[in-house]
Amino acid sequence: MTDYPSLHMTIDGQKVSGGGRRTFEVVNPATGETLAELPLAEAADLDRALEVAEKGFQIWRKSTAQERAAVLQGAARLMVERQEELACIATLEQGKPLAESRIEVMMNVGLFNFYAGECFRNYGRELVRPEESRSTVRWEPVGPVAAFAPWNFPLGNPGRKLGAPIAAGCSVILKSAEETPASALGVLQALLDAGLPKEVAQAVFGVPDEVSRHLLGSPIIRKLSFTGSTVVGKHLARLATENMQRTTMELGGHGPVLVFDDADVEKALATSVPGKYRNCGQVCVSPTRFIVQEDVFEKFRDGFIEGARNQQVGDGLADGTSMGPMANPRRPEAIDRFIADAVDKGAKLGAGGKRIGNQGYFYEPSVLFDVPLDAEIMNEEPFGPVAIVNPFRSEEEMIAEANRLPYGLAAYAWTSDVQRQRRLASQLEAGMVGINSHMIGGADSPFGGVKWSGHGSEDGIEGVKACMVTKAVHEG
C-alpha cells in the first residue's frame, strides 16, 4: 500500500475541508514530493470544535467503565486489522522505516488495551470515620482536553493524547502535527469506528500559535496536554495560566548515557547504536551524550563509529532500511549547523557529517567525539542522527556531566556494579532511567520528565489520573 488518503479535519464526526480554507503542503520526506494539501482551521472551526467538545464531555463523563473500555478495546482490534495501512501512511508522511511504524501501531494497541483495564480501576477510597458519618475520595474527569502532538511518532503520540482522556471520561480536541495528519486521523477513526460518540473527540489542524491561543483562551478547555520542545512548552504553559488549565508537559531532552569500565561494551554498543539512529535520532528520549569512562573509551568510540557506518539509510518503505530520512528540510539544516559548530570548536568527526543525495531529507549517521562543553550540541538537543562520545575519568564526573543540563527526560547507564546501579538510580536527574537497557517505555509505565523536560506523565495509571481531578465528599 502506497496510496495516501485525502486530508480533512474531523469535527462532530464530519470531515471538514475545502471552503476556501488555507492549506498546508504535506510532503514525503524521502522524495520531497507533495502528498496532499491539508486544510487549516479558521476561528469558526475552532469555535465549533470547542462547542462540540463541551457537549461531548457532558455525554462521556456519564459513560460507564464498560462503555469506555469497549471503545478502547474495539479501537485496539481495529488497529491490529489496519496495521499495515496505518504503518505505510506513517512512513510516507514521516519517513521512518516501515518496521518502526508497525511497532508504533502495536504500541497504541497495547496502550489502548491497558487503558481499557484502567477504566475499571479509576475508583477512589473511603476514609475511616465514626459510624454516623462518611467521607470518600472520588476521581472525576477533568473536562475537555486540548491535546497537541508532534510529528516524530505520528501514530503513537496521537494515541497517547486520545487514549488517556477517553479512558478518564473526558472529551478531547486533538491538534496533531500538520506534517503527519493522516496518521493521527487514522487513530481517531479507529476510535470512532469502535463506537466513540462523535462529540467526544475532534481533530483540527492549523497555524500552531493560532490554534493554541484560541483553544487555551477558552474556559471550556480544562486541561492541556503537550508534547514538543521546551521553548514551545513554556509558551503554552504561560497561556494555560490565564484559565488555570491543568497541564501535562512532555518536553525536550538530551539523553546522557554513562558507560563505565566494568560494562559489557559489546552489549552496550549493540543496543546504543540502533537506539541512537532509531527514527533518524528524532526521538525525545534518544541516547545522545555518551559519557564513557576512559579505560573503555576507545573501544566504545570505535565500535560506535563502525555501527554508524553500517546503518542502511534509505526510503522507509524499502526493504532493509534501518534509518529513513529526517522528517522535514529544517532538520538536516539544523544538524549541519550543530556539527559545523562542534568541529569549529575542536570536536573530531568520526562518521557522517553531511547530507545524502539531493532528493528528500537524508543525512548520514554521524558520530562526534572529544566535543568541548561549549559546543552548541553539548547544550541543545540535536534531535537528529548524531551521537556525541566523550571520555571521563570518575563516576562523580560522569554523574555531574549527566546532570549538568536543565533537561531531565531520559538517562541511561551501563555497568555491572550492582551498588553503582543503585547509586545511579538515585542520583541521575531524569524522569526515566534505563540501566543496562534502553527500553524505558511501556503501556503500564509512566512516561515523563523533570526540570526543563516537563512535568506530569503519560502512559501507566499516571496517564489516566492526569486527566482526572480529586474530589473529597464528607457526609454527616
Provide an overview of this structure.
By secondary structure, this protein is of the alpha/beta class. The protein folds into 2 domains: 9-251 and 453-475, Aldehyde Dehydrogenase, Chain A, domain 1 (3-Layer(aba) Sandwich), CATH 3.40.605.10; 255-442, Aldehyde Dehydrogenase, Chain A, domain 2 (3-Layer(aba) Sandwich), CATH 3.40.309.10. It has 14 helices and 22 strands. Strands 14-15-16-13-12-18-19 form a 7-stranded mixed sheet, with helices on both faces. Strands 9-8-7-10-11-21 form a 6-stranded mixed sheet, with helices on both faces. Strands 5-6-22 form a 3-stranded antiparallel sheet, with no helix packed on it. A hairpin with a 2-residue loop joins strand 1 (9-11) and strand 2 (14-16). Helix 5 packs parallel to helix 6 (181-193). The longest helix has 21 residues, at 98-118. The chain is globular and about 70 Å long. It starts with 8 loop residues before the first strand and ends with a strand. The mean pLDDT is 97.
